[in-house]
């Protein structure tokens, strides 16, 4: 019996040693040697896609391998984010996601249902862009300032209507952050996306939206829309006269539609290092810079450590905002 036990121990030891050797061999393999997949959890044409495609093209030149965008859509981005969370952590499965990555686990907890992923499932590589939303109204709306808007909303609770891209989406959370800070009640009209929400405002079906500057600026220039304030911690370069809500005395109202580059959490540090270095170069390429300029979206690059700090702080703000909103059926 003793000899049999020794045989089992020796066999297990051999398997463990072989596994360690195999893992070491994989860690020592050059990277990359084959195409890289970048999951975008939203449909083509959205912010994540419009940022992801030019950064993927720039990374191809840096990494000398094809970098392919794969749109995995559904459930407000949860389908693609879950796919990225459970993908093989080998550096060949990456993701470009938006700030909504931080919202969905909080919503799942709020409703007492299992989360499809956790934030700890991802390793940040780099922040690519970060645009604060802006409070957008029709050019002929009666409010000239945020003070006018808030005063009217206090007189008419739940009568001023705003459109959003959907419940707990970026446009919804941002506006409710502001409403909570201002002590006002607004009527939420969810739509099927950012485009339909903007069209609802342009068509006069709602009174305001919290929109991205890149989609609002063309209409501001055309004279059909006006902006009252921004959600950022500083003024937007393209709208230098626009005050921030923070400047106007509102608290806990920072909100950004940001795009970030991620890998599964267990991706080897050596691979993450290569991706960080390649991304730092990619965001400076003329093609990527030009693509962002066409979108009127400023590049706001942060390397992984700085991005992690930004993400932690942003996730805490968003969690607080979602809990203030509460359950929306």
Average pLDDT across residues? Answer: 89
- Structural class, from helix and strand content? alpha/beta
Give the terminus-to-terminus CA distance. Answer: 63 Å
**Overall strand count:** 11
Q: Helix share of residues?
A: 40-55%
Radius of gyration: 23 Å
The DSSP helix count reads: 11
| SSE series | HEHEHEHEEHEHEHEHEEHHEH
**In which order are the strands of the major sheet placed?**
2-1-3-10-4-11
Largest sheet: 6 strands, mixed
Low-confidence stretches: 1-26
Shape label: globular
Approximate strand percentage: 15-25%
Give a short synopsis of this structure:
Helices cover 45% and strands 19% of the residues.
Distinctive features:
11 helices, alpha/beta, 11 strands, disordered N terminus, 329 residues, six-stranded mixed beta sheet, globular, three-stranded antiparallel beta sheet
Give a written overview of the molecule.
The chain is an alpha/beta fold. The chain is 45% helix and 19% strand. It has eleven helices and eleven strands. The protein has helices spanning 2-28, 47-63, 78-86, 104-110, 146-155, 170-182, 194-202, 213-222, 269-282, 286-294, 304-325, and strands at 36-40, 67-71, 93-98, 122-132, 134-138, 161-164, 187-190, 208-211, 225-230, 256-264, 299-303. A six-stranded mixed β-sheet has the order 2-1-3-10-4-11, with helices on both faces. A three-stranded antiparallel β-sheet has the order 8-5-9. Strand 6, helix 6 and strand 7 (187-190) form a beta-alpha-beta unit. The radius of gyration is 23 Å and the shape is globular.
């Amino acid at each position: 019996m003793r000899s049999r036990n020794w045989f089992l121990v020796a066999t297990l030891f051999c398997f463990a040693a072989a596994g360690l050797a195999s893992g070491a061999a994989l860690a020592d393999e050059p990277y990359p040697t084959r195409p890289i997949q970048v999951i975008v959890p939203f449909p083509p044409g959205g912010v994540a896609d419009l940022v992801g495609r030019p950064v993927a093209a720039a990374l191809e030149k840096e990494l000398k391998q094809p970098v392919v965008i794969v749109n995995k859509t559904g459930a407000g981005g949860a389908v693609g984010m879950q796919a990225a969370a459970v993908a093989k952590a080998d550096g060949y499965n990456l993701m470009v996601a938006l700030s909504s990555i931080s919202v969905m686990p909080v919503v799942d907890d709020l409703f007492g249902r299992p989360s499809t992923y956790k934030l700890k499932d991802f390793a940040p590589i780099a922040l690519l862009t970060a645009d604060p939303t802006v409070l957008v109204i029709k050019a002929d709306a009666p409010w000239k300032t945020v003070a006018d808007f808030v005063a009217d909303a206090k007189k008419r609770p739940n009568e001023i209507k705003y459109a959003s891209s959907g419940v707990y989406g970026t446009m919804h959370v941002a506006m409710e952050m502001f409403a909570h800070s201002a002590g006002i009640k607004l009527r939420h009209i969810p739509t099927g996306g950012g485009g339909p929400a903007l069209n609802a405002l342009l068509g006069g079906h709602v009174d305001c939206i919290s929109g991205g500057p890149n989609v609002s600026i063309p209409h501001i220039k055309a004279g059909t829309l006006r902006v009252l304030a921004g959600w950022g911690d500083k003024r937007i370069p393209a709208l230098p006269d626009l005050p921030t809500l923070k400047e106007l005395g509102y608290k806990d109202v920072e909100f950004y539609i940001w795009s970030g580059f991620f890998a599964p959490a267990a991706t080897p540090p050596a691979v993450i290092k290569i991706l960080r270095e390649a991304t730092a170069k990619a965001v400076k390429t003329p093609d990527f810079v030009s693509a962002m300029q066409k979108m009127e979206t400023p590049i706001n690059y942060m390397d992984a450590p700085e991005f992690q700090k930004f993400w932690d702080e942003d996730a805490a703000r968003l969690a607080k905002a979602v809990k203030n909103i509460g359950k929306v059926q």
